[in-house]
Amino acid sequence: MYEENQLNFEQIQLLDEQGHMKSKSTISDDTLLEMYRWMLKARLIDEKLLRLQRQGRIGTYAPFSGQEAAQIGSALALEKHDWICPSYRDLAACMVHGMPFEQVMQYVKGHLHGGKTPDGINIIPIQIIIAAQTLHAVGIAFASKLKKEQSVSVSYFGDGATSEGDFHEALNFASVYQLPVVFFCQNNKYAISVPLKQQMASRTIAQKAIAYGMKGVQVDGNDVIGVYEVMKEAVDRARSGQGPTLIEADTYRLGPHTTSDDPNKYRPKEEELEWIRQKDPILRLRKLLEGKALWTWGNEEKLINDFQLELDNQIQEIEQHDPPKIEESFHYVYSKMNPQLVEQQKMIKSLQQEKAGDLHG
Ligand SMILES: Cc1ncc(C[n+]2csc(CCOP(=O)(O)OP(=O)(O)O)c2C)c(N)n1
């Protein structure tokens, strides 16, 4: 039997909902401003992408509004050579780690290049299969350890992913081999329409770490400062050979699961309003910055106007790009195409030639 008190995780919170610091942080004012600008821009991008989907200009989209502090606070704690293994909802973390906005657009448009991060930016293709990227992160961490590269890998996933076998295999392997990996769970309370309580019987996600002999931490995922500090510590531990950490970031998605979902069918209105009015991660950091005289309404207005213009121009330009060529889809499955793929590619080419011949003849 476990000791009951072993499972009493105290949730870490450094910046409270009113924008007051509960204890001292070593984060500089410049970093606080960087965090704020990232969060505000990410919210604007998310809202824009939602509108583009409604206009039929991109495919199904999984919005991340509400989860900016969790994603941005954690990604800012990484070094450039660290690896991110993201899910479909982690675009804010990806952009902080260097994914260009052009690639984000390609991904949401279903373009082949949406899965191809430029060389030198350590982000693997965005994962749709729930929890699969926990194993990918472990594999990358194992390689990093064997090659003595000093890079840490981070797997981003949701609460629903913790009910998948992959998650448990990943934690076990990472702990047995003391790998430099951080498992970053954004507990946004729902796996599509399934609430956490119907999905697991344990009190917290963080406590699952105990079974695997690794460190587990629960943090207020809407407190960007708390998330940053907790992540920094986990990354430092991983890098210095002290093994993996499971972080549970307590957060909420303000929008639907995807653009095909209607949360009114399964989420109480009062619950949504509480997270919107009292717990918004952007609002609380703004209160702190205003209190420190680092941010004004004028700064806010300028950033919003300038960034919206920049975003619109970028989107307009990206929309002029050519669509992907079907024969190209065979290139990215393996580093070298196998005979079956070569055959399939030939087949596609000859079908295309036939079609072109029909059109001209
Ligand atoms: C292995 C697998 N099973 C089912 C699905 C269908 N599916 C897509 S999203 C989702 C819910 C995931 O919830 P969670 O892990 O909490 O992440 P969130 O979407 O809330 O970020 C499910 C079941 C899938 N993509 N992969």
UniProtKB/TrEMBL annotation:
| Cofactor(s) the protein needs | thiamine diphosphate
Specify whether Disulfide bond is a keyword of the entry.
no
Reactions that this protein is recorded to catalyse: N(6)-[(R)-lipoyl]-L-lysyl-[protein] + pyruvate + H(+) = N(6)-[(R)-S(8)-acetyldihydrolipoyl]-L-lysyl-[protein] + CO2
Query: What top-tier enzyme class does this entry carry?
Result: oxidoreductase
- Domain Dehydrogenase E1 component, by residue range, is 36-326
Question: Which UniProt key words apply to this protein?
Answer: Oxidoreductase, Pyruvate, Thiamine pyrophosphate
Does the keyword Transport feature in the UniProt annotation?
no
Q: What does this protein do?
A: The pyruvate dehydrogenase complex catalyzes the overall conversion of pyruvate to acetyl-CoA and CO(2). It contains multiple copies of three enzymatic components: pyruvate dehydrogenase (E1), dihydrolipoamide acetyltransferase (E2) and lipoamide dehydrogenase (E3).
Q: What is the protein's given name? A: Pyruvate dehydrogenase E1 component subunit alpha
Task: Say which species the protein is native to.
Answer: Bacillus norwichensis
What are the top taxonomic ranks of the organism? Bacteria, Bacillati, Bacillota, Bacilli, Bacillales
Q: Which gene encodes it?
A: pdhA
